[in-house]
Every structure is written in C-alpha cells, then in structure tokens.
Design brief:
Shape: elongated
Strand order of the largest sheet: 1-2
Distance between the termini: 25 Å
Number of strands: 2
Largest sheet: 2 strands, antiparallel
C-alpha cells in the first residue's frame, strides 16, 4: 500500500501544521480577547504570522502541493509569499543557517553530515545554501538543478 503521506514521513509532515495551528489559534485568541491595549500585542501578530506560515507549509507537505511556494523557474520565491509562508521560511532557513554555522565551527549534530556528495564527475548532490558547494579535488560546478 502507498504511504499515508507523499514523502512517507507522517510525523515530520504533521508537526509543522499542528504547531502552526496551535500558534495561530493562540495568537488569534490572545489578540481578540485582549485587544490592542499595549505594544506587547505585536508579539501576538508575529505569532499569528508564524502560525500561518507553519499551517501553509504543513498543508503543502500534507497535500503534496509545492505550488503554494510559487517558486520561479530560477528557484526564487516571490516576495509576496513571505506574507503567508514567511514564518515557516524564516524558521526553516534559519535552522539550516544555524546548522551550517555550527558545522563551519566543527560542531555537527550528526556524524558524516555533509552539505553535498560527489555522485559523478562535476555532479554534486546536496543542499544549496548561499553559494555553490564544492568538493576537494573536483572541478567547481557552475549550475544547480533544483529538485
């Protein structure tokens, strides 16, 4: 039988949507019940924004709907997507940048965790961060295929 989720990772696919729904509900409840009596309510607006991003990203994962990201052929995400997916993008990208910063300082969360692997001459398979990855002893690549 096919897996219950497109990726087969039910737990990992459900967590963002669940966490987002909880943050969204809490933020909306707090904002509606307390009103705009203090500048501290801005925290609830941020909570709503984060929750919306996690719910939308969770929906994209659960229903195999990558079109919600509106990714361009170049791999860029249009600025308006940050309105409804920004919370998820901020946390997701932030976690990758933090993991990369730790790895650059010799601290890895998992043994043998690499940014990329050389799978054929001039073909690297891995994560694209800000710059093209490279492997010692292999020619540099100048193109990325975003899967």
């Amino acid at each position: 039988p096919p897996p219950p989720m497109p990726s087969g990772h039910t737990f990992l696919n459900v967590v963002p949507a669940t966490a987002g729904a909880a943050a969204l509900c809490h933020g909306l409840y707090a904002l509606v019940s307390q009103g705009w009596h203090s500048p501290a309510q801005l925290a609830h607006v941020v909570e709503i924004w984060l929750g919306t991003g996690f719910v939308t990203a969770g929906a994209a994962l659960l229903f195999d709907a990558p079109r919600l990201y509106c990714k361009r052929a170049s791999g860029e995400i249009p600025p308006f997507v940050w309105v409804y997916l920004g919370g998820w993008l901020l946390v997701y990208r932030g976690s990758w940048l933090a993991k990369r910063a730790l790895a650059d300082r010799g601290l890895q969360l998992k043994a043998n965790d690499r940014l990329c692997d050389l799978v054929a001459e001039r073909v690297l398979l891995g994560r694209l961060t800000w710059s093209l990855p490279s492997v010692d002893g292999a020619p540099e690549g100048d193109m990325v295929v975003d899967l």
